[in-house]
Design a protein that fits this description.
This protein is α/β, with parallel strands linked by helices and 251 residues long. It has one domain: Aldolase class I (TIM Barrel). The chain has an eight-stranded parallel barrel, surrounded by eight helices. The longest helix is centred in the C-terminal third of the chain and has 21 residues. It binds pyridoxine-5'-phosphate. The site of pyridoxine-5'-phosphate (PXP) has 19 residues, from strand 8 and helix 10.
Length: 251
């Protein structure tokens, strides 16, 4: 099982001050030394955290495999193609969201975008809700991999195992236990279905030190992309330790 560390929130902290620290470029050396397999960054249309020159500097440093998340925005895709990251993960984007909500809605033009990226020697993954129809389409449209959106599972895990619903960040989901079991089953079924079609299967969103044990039991999943929980833990114990703790859980 490979680990991609999403370092967007290092840039979020920098943007809280709009200065030049902390620098996400500095993080990649720590991510590499800690033993993670890749870094993931999201060049959002609103540039709320990672900026164009962050992506360029990180890719041009050639230190570690770089997976860039992007919407299907033509200008961003063209910019990324020139920089040639190892992979691009296509994600949905909505200007008001706090984080990526839901999987990509695959449309006819998605196929052209996938082919354009692949023609330039870059792997393509699609960030999808665990839906067999979407997974089938990903295969038909020639994607190399899918990343299953684990956000619902993670939110239900928080409701069932923490006091989040006694805080101001309450998550409103009825019958969480029933839905938790169903969400995990759905992830398992989707992972099986995708692997059978010959797609690589990744997972991410909301994964943390408490819930990751359930996801690593799904044999078909070969890569996790984890950001917020690792950066949150790094505030208390340092980035290298936070990554090593996660790697130990995964191994
Ligand atoms: N994978 C994808 C496609 C994402 O959009 C995100 C969030 O940027 C992540 C993984 C990481 O999610 P989290 O920060 O909740 O670990």
């Amino acid at each position: 099982m490979k680990l991609g560390v999403n370092i967007d929130h290092i840039a979020t902290l920098r943007e809280a001050r709009k200065i030049n620290a902390p620098d996400p470029l500095e993080a990649i050396f720590i991510v590499k030394n800690a033993g993670a397999n890749q870094i993931t960054i999201h060049l959002r249309e609103d540039r709320r955290h990672i900026h164009d020159d962050d992506v360029r500097k990180i890719i041009e440093s050639h230190q570690i495999k770089v997976n860039v998340e992007s919407s299907t925005n033509k200008d961003i895709i063209d910019y990324l193609i020139k920089l040639k990251p190892h992979s691009i993960t296509l994600v949905p984007e909505n200007r008001m969201e706090v984080t990526t909500e839901g999987g990509l809605k695959i449309q006819n033009h998605t196929k052209e975008i996938i082919n354009k990226i692949k023609d330039n020697g870059i792997k393509v993954s699609l960030f999808l809700d665990p839906s067999n129809d979407d997974i089938q389409k990903a295969k038909e449209f020639n994607a190399d991999a899918i990343e299953l959106h684990t956000g619902l599972f993670a939110n239900l895990h928080l409701i069932l195992n923490t006091n989040i619903n006694q805080t101001h960040n309450k998550i409103n989901i009825e019958n969480p236990l029933q839905k938790y079991t169903a969400s995990l089953e759905k992830l398992k079924d989707s992972a099986k279905f995708a692997k059978k079609l010959g797609l690589k299967v990744y997972a991410g969103h909301g994964l943390n030190y408490q819930n990751v044990s359930e996801i690593i039991k799904i044999d078909e999943i070969s890569e996790l992309n984890i950001g917020h929980s690792i950066i949150a833990r790094a505030v208390f114990c340092g980035l290298e330790n936070a990554i090593k703790e996660m790697l130990n859980l995964i191994k």
